[in-house]
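TEACHING EXERCISE
Course module: macromolecular assemblies
Task: Read the component lines below, then compare them to the predicted structure of the full complex.
Student: A.B.
Group: 4
Components provided:
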Amino acid sequence: MTDSRQGTPFRKPGDEDERPTDVTETLVAGGMTRPTPVTWDADQAVTALYSAHYGSLVRLAALLLRDVGTAEEVVQDSFVAMHGGWRRLREPEKALSYLRQSVVNRSRSVLRHRAVVQKYAPKGLPDAPSAENGAIIELERTAVVEALAKLPTRQREALVLRYYADLSEAEIAHTMGISRGAVKSHTSRGIAALRSGLEQSS
Amino acid sequence: MTHPDDEYGEIIRRALHAEADAVMPGGDGLDRIRTRITEREVRRYGALHGDLRAWFRSVLAQLADLRFAGWLTETWMRSAVTVGVALIAVGLAVSAPQTLDRITSTGNRDTAPGNDPGGSTSISEGSQAGSGAPAPRPSDDRPGAAPGASITPTSPLAAGSDDCPSSEPMPMTGTGTRPATTPSCPRSPTPTPPTSPSTPTEPAPSVEPSTTPQPAPAPETTSGVDGAQEEAG
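Instructor-supplied answer key:
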């Protein structure tokens, strides 16, 4: 499609060249290599990305924070921040990466704050499953989650991004804001610590 | 041989996916996001702007449900707001009394034959081409002679055909605006802008030069105008 290069930025529904809404379009800034940059505005981006990725991002944050309510707040704040900085973003792929990065960073901040709170209020979080809890259904899952919660933040992030989000090392490095070598280090150390924790629990 | 890390990796993957699948986000996430966006804009731009944007956003959201939002973008919204603001500004400018007077005076000046480019050109051409033709009829050289009675600037022009307009103020505009077409003035090629912004409706007999034989009688000016127009024709 080349009609929306510049002359017809708006198309009405029912037109022959109506843009499909069930696919993710790749926006090219400047149109250097490909024409047709159909630019989303901030509101459209929020709506589209919410529909496609809100659930997965909430689950990602929930794995990091172990609190669904806080995870939703973190993800919503990330969407709001993306909306405010939308002028600097012009591609859906970059927007998702930005969202993911924002979710991880905000989760890290929450955990830091939570660590401070726990320092002065060492009571366990109500949503954290304990070993004495008889409602455990899947022992393996609970053991892994518990062991994961005991890991340092960076190691936990690396493992969650790798084994839940299925990101590559480069993507994990970009999301966490570290080098690929650091990603490998955190991942290997995290697995080692997780293995040790599972062996001890078993 | 399976790497130990791979084994634990699979265990971790299964456990994480099982844990994540148990998470069910609330259905009002998008509404909360939009509410926070509106609140942020209100804090940043003020209540009116925030409400306006919220209203537009709600309209767009409703249209998005109808799948019409593809062609209703924020750019369109901004353009519409810009056009509306421009129209309001133009309306205010037009409604200003001074602007009205200016337009009125400008319109009167425009209606004067002297300001008619064709007429002035014809007059100038006539005065230049026919050395004697326009001379005996000073009224011809008066671009604005016909409506002179009603238009102040025409009278001095009509009266002082041989006199340079530079010596005469152009009271019609009163704003220092030089007439679009200066009457023919072989002696003074450069007409000067009006110096005294007198009342446009008042005639300016004082500007009459000594050489001006007539103070711009209406019928003569009319005929002069007609003559000028004929010359132009």
